[in-house]
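Sample 1 of the test manifest.
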Amino acid sequence: MLSYITKRLVAGLITVWFIATATFIAMHLVPGDPLMNQKAVSAEIRLNLERKYGLDKPVVEQYFIFLGNMLTGDFGISYTQQNRKVNDIIKDHFPVSATLGILAIFFATLGGILWGAITAVYKNRLPDIIIMFLVILGISVPSFVFAALGQLLLVNLNQLVGQSVLPVAGWGTFSHMLMPSMVLGLSTMALLTRLMRSSMLDVVNEDYIKTAKAKGLSPLRIFFRHQLRNAILPVITVLGPQIAAITTGGFVVELVFAIPGLGRYFVQAVQQLDYTVIMGTTVFYGSFLVLMVILVDIVYGFIDPRVRLQ
Amino acid sequence: MTANILEVTNLSVEFETFGGTVQAVRGVSFAVEAGKTLAIVGESGCGKSVTVQSVMGIIPMPPGKITSGSAKVKGEEILGLTAIEANRYRGVEIGMIFQDPMTSLNPSMTIGNQIAETLVVHRGKSHSEALAMAIKLLDRTHIPEASKRARQYPFEFSGGMLQRAMIAQSLACNPSLLIADEPTTALDVTIQEQILELLTELQRTEGMSILLITHDLAVVARMADQVAVMYAGQIIERGSLDDIFYRSAHPYTLGLKSAMPSNTGRGDKRLQPIPGSPPDLFSPPQGCGYAARCPQAMQICKRKLPVLTEDPGDSGHLSRCWLQHKDAPDVEELYQPLKLKGTSSAH
Ligand SMILES: Nc1ncnc2c1ncn2[C@@H]1O[C@H](COP(=O)(O)OP(=O)(O)OP(=O)(O)O)[C@@H](O)[C@H]1O
Ligand code: SF4
Ligand SMILES: [Mg+2]
């Protein structure tokens, strides 16, 4: 187990290095540089600024300086936000994004398992047909549409009740988090529902379900202890990649709901070619996702005994 | 007279499929006596599993449907019960083991917990009490290091060990009947022998009845007190082991026996498969199901279903064949085509 985790971590490290390098190259291929956004500066000042930020050095040298700093955990200072360290930006805003993402994953998993189980139980009957129709919507409609619809819903709801039931935008309390995290988790929930449904239907036909019946267990017990648990296993395997989907989806949802998450800074940084912030956030997100995928695999190992002991 | 643990009368089961209705079981009757073993034999697809699974109430419904019949456990009707009602005898009065032990246990639950579950549900034991009993049960089925094995998962067991664990599980509530649906088919020959040995031993010590399904006559010879031979959803011959092996009255049983490789040492007796295949159960023939393959087939065989008739000199030995029908009105006419059999049943 330990050697397995070490192997995965080393592979993850290589992945992160690759992400960093690819981002670095892509970033420098885009015409322009971070200083272009400054108000008209004289050539002299520009030269000074370039020297200050190290932009006058050859790109290859810049790359190695960046890598060296990265290894010490220092992503440098933002070009566009006065004297703000990239590390501070991440520290201040990532917890917001993470909270949103975790809530979204939570809703998606809970909902996916619940709806998937219901559709399997009511296979080809009305509840199944309705839910599976919604699932197709959930998978095919992009999240900013749901974000807008969600906001609209809240506006109407608040008007109807005559007072603010749930805030339409912003961040701070749990009631702020509810709608955006549900919107963010929606497409993942739809995907998991579909997966859970087919997984449940596979399990019903397994021999051990017949055994459970022959043992004289109640239908409820068979459902929860034998069917559900075995059906959830394949669903968990896709959670790792889905966390990535939710993270990227989070950028849009943060924007619509005016949530001070890291996503907004990332988008802004890309627009302004703020080199250090782009590199910092990308490498950070990359490492985060790699870690999450490894974590999900380990958790899976704890749930599925066959994986655990190998 | 011995008491019957299980009495099945005139059981018929159908499956509704896209291709039509499969009449998988057509009026099957048999009884399992206390402490005895009844073996049901027959070719693949003749309805053996459907018969016993209907008794257990575990055929999928729909598409399955029990269209008629009765099954009584110690005199109490069990067909048509709700799942909750049926659970008073499932796993309690009747234990069941299946053909493929590899897939018949829950892969994500320890063996010990799976056995203990039965005791928690039916006997109201606490989990730790039940687990301790589960270890004893594993011990009783000769699984070495039972307490360690109880904490393991099915994938850590070999096929033979899994079947032992299945047996241990089915014995948890001391059932009066164990249904074993081809318990050794999926196992190696040497392991088969061990499992049969175990079943014999347990029957002796626990005094339970066994309803054994198999298509292996050697297994029948070894285990059975009573034998029922099934063909195309019907029982075509039924009697004691000796009735079936030495006084067989039905051409199909004779065919099965000549298909059995002999262990007599004569060496030259080869396995002789019965030519042809069983009839289509979507529209079973109105006459004898075996008529198309039977070397003794007569004209009436195709027109009219023979009734299950008791051998006059041999009480309790029944067979469903026109050859046995001594009171048939036109015996002469009946036997006539027999003389011509070489030419008339050419197919
Ligand atoms: N769920 C089902 N749906 C449709 N037909 C079924 C179903 N289960 C069984 N049957 C049909 O019922 C018939 C009897 O099947 P059964 O499993 O009882 O045979 P068997 O005697 O146990 O054979 P084997 O020795 O291969 O186990 C077969 O023709 C099969 O096609
Ligand atoms: S009834 Fe006729 S066809 Fe059927 S087994 Fe007897 S002799 Fe053969
Ligand atoms: Mg079978």
